[in-house]
Specification:
The protein is of the alpha+beta class and 221 residues long. The protein has helices at residues 2-21, 32-36, 114-134, 161-168, 175-193, 198-214; strands spanning 49-57, 60-68, 70-71, 102-109, 138-144, 150-157. Strand 1 (49-57) and strand 2 (60-68) form a beta hairpin. The radius of gyration is 19 Å and the shape is globular.
Length: 221
């Protein structure tokens, strides 16, 4: 019970970070009153924007849907505010071949020791996998104290995370190994499905997710 309360508290801090960082439209369309009073906004995870992408692992072709937090504008506002300098809502480019400037927002406990570094490095695996699959190029991490006080921000490029972990970190995971394992796993699963149709696979996945949630699991960090 105590661990569940702690998990929900940490999750709430993440939603609060998103509330502080985001605005519902571009700067010119949002009132100054709304921008300056985000600290007092009620935290909610109901409003979400989902991106659907097509990708592949080995022989497996997948359609993946996932929630994305925001977009990043290339022009920064003239005034300086630590939480709103660069996290704003963007728009999709007219050319569908151009990447969308999605941004993923995450929080993590500030690093004070080697143990904290290893813990954060393992969280980076989840950060990277989520953003890599959806084609999110940047991740903004808000480092906080154990009491939830924001200390600093760090901008990470999704594609560089595995290399940085290998060269600069503890090397606790390998991006290529993760991709190769996923490709082999999907190839094995799809081969075992045989002639099962797409809607049956969807029902299987939905039931698995329902069972996971019923047992108290969570897909959110």
């Amino acid at each position: 019970m105590k661990s569940l309360v702690l998990a929900k508290t940490i999750q709430s801090k993440g939603y609060k970070f998103e509330t502080l960082c985001l605005i519902p439209d571009q700067w010119g369309a949002v009132s100054r009153d709304y921008i300056e009073n985000r600290e007092h906004e009620t935290v909610s995870n109901h409003a979400q924007y989902c991106s659907v992408v097509r990708t592949g692992f080995g022989k497996a072709s997948l359609v993946i849907g996932g929630e994305v937090d925001a977009g990043m504008l290339t022009i920064k506002p003239a005034f300086d505010c630590i939480l709103t300098t660069f996290i704003v809502w963007d728009r999709k480019p007219e050319d569908k071949e151009q990447p969308i400037n999605w941004v993923e927002l995450k929080t993590a406990e500030d690093i004070q020791s080697d143990g904290d570094l290893l813990k954060f490095e393992r969280k980076l695996l989840k950060f990277w996998a989520q953003s890599f699959l959806l084609g999110v190029p940047k991740i903004i991490v808000g480092f906080r104290t154990r009491d939830g006080v924001l200390r600093r921000l760090e901008e990470l490029e999704t594609q560089k995370i595995p290399g940085n972990v290998k060269r600069l970190g503890k090397g606790s995971w390998d991006g290529n190994l993760c991709i190769n394992f996923t490709a082999s796993f999907l190839d094995c699963k799809f081969s075992s499905f045989g002639d099962i149709r797409a809607h049956q696979c969807t029902n299987y996945a939905t039931k698995s997710l329902e069972d996971h949630n019923h047992e108290g699991g969570s897909l959110e960090d």
